Amino acid sequence: MHKFDLKNKTALITGGAQGFGLDIAKKFLVSGANVIIWDIDKAQIKKAKRIVKNNNFSSYIVDVTNFNNVARVVKKIIKYSKIDILINSAGITGPTTQLWNYKIKDWKQIMEINLNGTFHCCKAIVPYMIKNNYGRIVNIASVSGKDGNANASAYSSSKAGVLGLTKSLGKELAKYNIAVNAITPAGAKTRILNQMTKKHVKQMLSKVPRGRFLELNELSSMVCWLSSEENSFSTAAVFDISGGRSTY
Ligand SMILES: NC(=O)c1ccc[n+]([C@@H]2O[C@H](COP(=O)([O-])OP(=O)(O)OC[C@H]3O[C@@H](n4cnc5c(N)ncnc54)[C@H](O)[C@@H]3O)[C@@H](O)[C@H]2O)c1
After folding, report:
1. Active-site residue identified among 128, 155, 176, 248
2. Full set of structural domains in the chain with CATH
């Protein structure tokens, strides 16, 4: 596994108990970082700990939709550690159906987790990054936030919102040594795919010129570089990892 230099860095990864978040955590650990994961899934956190088995890996049960919960745990962490890196990976797709059939509660839940959750974590952590004049934030958006996917209006809108948030916050923080970037992955085989119909997943894959799913290690490598000191210039940007689907 290729290593990046993340020695003496502490990374906080939301939705880190599985999927992209957990794979990023593993690559961060190999690269020398301390990793703290946040997730709402207690059983999955336990499983992740069994898989990772590393003293530099710790966890909290945090619901990113609850700002008080987020702020309280940040305050706790700041007492014993700085937070150099924030990866916003917690997310859901929600049901696949046309906009006019979307249940109001489903739409709101997707926005709460994917967009407001990212806002809550940035809002709570950025002041400490400013104090340290150091930070690397990577928001995991989706290619659907750029292109829009039929039958996924809530998900696509929430991810487009994450791209807007990234561009604005990146500009606000550009005078500090803080980088804020987003990535726009195509489909990868994680649990999140079970939330969509097989037909929808097949349609997603048919749009990818590479003709296959994104591998987790391919995504983690990009996130590692964006989270490292080496990324000292790129900010407020959107990095594509859609296998040729989206070319802008
Ligand atoms: N897998 C894909 O095909 C794909 C493609 C593009 C973008 N993404 C995005 O990547 C991110 C990670 O997705 P994944 O594929 O790893 O999914 P996943 O379901 O494997 O992992 C997501 C994690 O987020 C956690 N989570 C959900 N709601 C939460 C909350 N309110 N607070 C804290 N944690 C919460 C879940 O418990 C889960 O452990 C998501 O934002 C997703 O939208 C995924």
Report:
1. 155
2. 10-241 (3.40.50.720)
Give the list of residues 6+ apart from residue 104 with CB closer than 8 angstroms, or none.
none
Sheet holding 237-241, edge to edge: 57-61, 34-39, 10-14, 85-88, 135-140, 178-185, 237-241
Q: CA torsion 72→75→79→81, rounded to 10°?
A: 110
Nearest-atom index, ligand 1, CA of 155:
43
Q: Name residue 190's beta-bridge partners.
A: none
Ligand 1 center from residue 89 Cα (angstroms): 6
The structure's pTM equals: 0.98
CA-based torsion, 89, 21, 222, 212: positive or negative: negative
Digit-coded pLDDT (tens) for 99-136: 999 999 999 999 999 999 999 999 999 999 999 999 99
CA of 114 to the centre of ligand 1 (A): 9
